[in-house]
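Review box. Two proteins, two foldings.
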Amino acid sequence: MVKSEARRDGGQRLLIVGPMTLSTEAHWRERLLAVDDAQGDMELDLSGVSDIDAAAIQLLVRLRQRARGASRRLCLLAPSTCVHEALDFCHLSEFFEIPRAARP
């Protein structure tokens, strides 16, 4: 499930719930890249992610690179434990903007 809301500054905040894995990657890619095409910064609330794999990590990296290329921000809000573990394992925790309060 993806719940999207526009922010007052023109950015987007998305709540992602469920697995982000190879079997769901096409679904997430379609939805996230569509929102990424909008103007403004993007915040991804990953608190509801129940499972994540390399396909989803690759998608997040792609979103981060697209945002950077467009001089926009991509912020990961409240990553679930599995997201934190996957980012740490891939040495990507510092690559993404994750507010201090959201870090373990």
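Next protein.
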Amino acid sequence: MAERLDALICQAVPGVSKAVRWNSPMYGMPGQGWFVSFHVFTGFVKLTFFKGTSLRPPPPGGSAQEARWINLVEGALDEEQVLAWVRQAAALPGWGKF
């Protein structure tokens, strides 16, 4: 699942920057900041969009001021929806700057 998410994010945003923070891969655009990250748990992967409340439709999880996430399980990955969210998120100002 993690390898597939990495591939989808790279497909949706050519030239995306990658880093690891808090044991999680993070993705961002230089000058714009980080827009998405995921973390692997036993049984699911949590895909977090830092400006998730701005996405349409917003991912279903979360109660933070702006972040929203979705818990993904093996065999239930809606790739088209993930691609749409990633493209939207990459176009927004992100979290932090680098």
